[in-house]
Design goal:
The protein is mostly helical. About 75% of the residues lie in helices and about 0% in strands. It has 2 domains: about 40 residues; about 130 residues. It is built from 10 helices and no strands. The longest helix is centred in the first third of the chain and has 23 residues. The N and C termini lie far apart (about 50 Å).
């Protein structure tokens, strides 16, 4: 059996090379059977979600490392940096263009853990920035905040004209004002 970390690394490298995940080709690259690959990951959507989240986590860490300040200003700066990094993710753009229904299902629904993980990460950003409040209220705000950010990052998937960060910033700030 292949180690989960090795499988995720292999899948991420495959995705970065091909802008998609071809399960047959990936199994061959990992020197495992297709059945073993599916037993290990469950489904292609689940694996795509894990790969997208791994890349997203890297982008969030980079954005958080570059952002200064505290409070709402820091949260906004992390979000701005993250949106800029996502706008340069060419493999994601190619994947979304080639497989929009799969991308929408994996990135925007509960079919995978990407959205839930993004909400948890946003809560961590709120906390690290010094925002406080009742746990349920903070989770609700994090959920709404992530949905707004998804509108910026994935506007093409949502059938929206391109939405840039500056257009969404007033709504993002409104969610943060109550928490400051």
């Amino acid at each position: 059996m292949i180690e989960p970390d090795a499988l995720l690394r292999g899948a991420a490298m495959h995705y970065l090379k091909h802008s998609t995940i071809d399960m047959d080709l990936l199994a061959s690259e990992l020197a495992i059977s297709r059945a073993t690959l599916y037993r290990a990951v469950g489904s292609r959507d689940a694996l795509l979600g894990d790969v997208f989240w791994a890349i997203g986590r890297i982008f969030l860490a980079e954005a958080g490392g570059e952002a200064g300040g505290t409070g709402a200003e820091r949260v906004i700066e992390v979000s701005r940096q993250f949106a800029e990094l996502m706008s340069t993710a060419q493999q994601l753009k190619q994947f979304v263009a080639a497989e929009p229904q799969t991308a929408a299902r994996v990135l925007l629904t509960s079919a995978t853990e990407v959205h839930h993980r993004a909400v948890d990460a946003q809560l961590e950003i709120f906390t690290a920035s010094g925002l406080t409040g009742e746990p349920e209220e903070m989770r609700r705000r994090a959920f709404l905040y992530v949905r707004l950010m998804e509108s910026v990052v994935y506007s093409d998937l949502l059938g929206l004209p391109e939405l840039n960060f500056e257009q969404a910033e007033p709504a993002l700030r409104a969610l943060l004002e109550e928490s400051a």
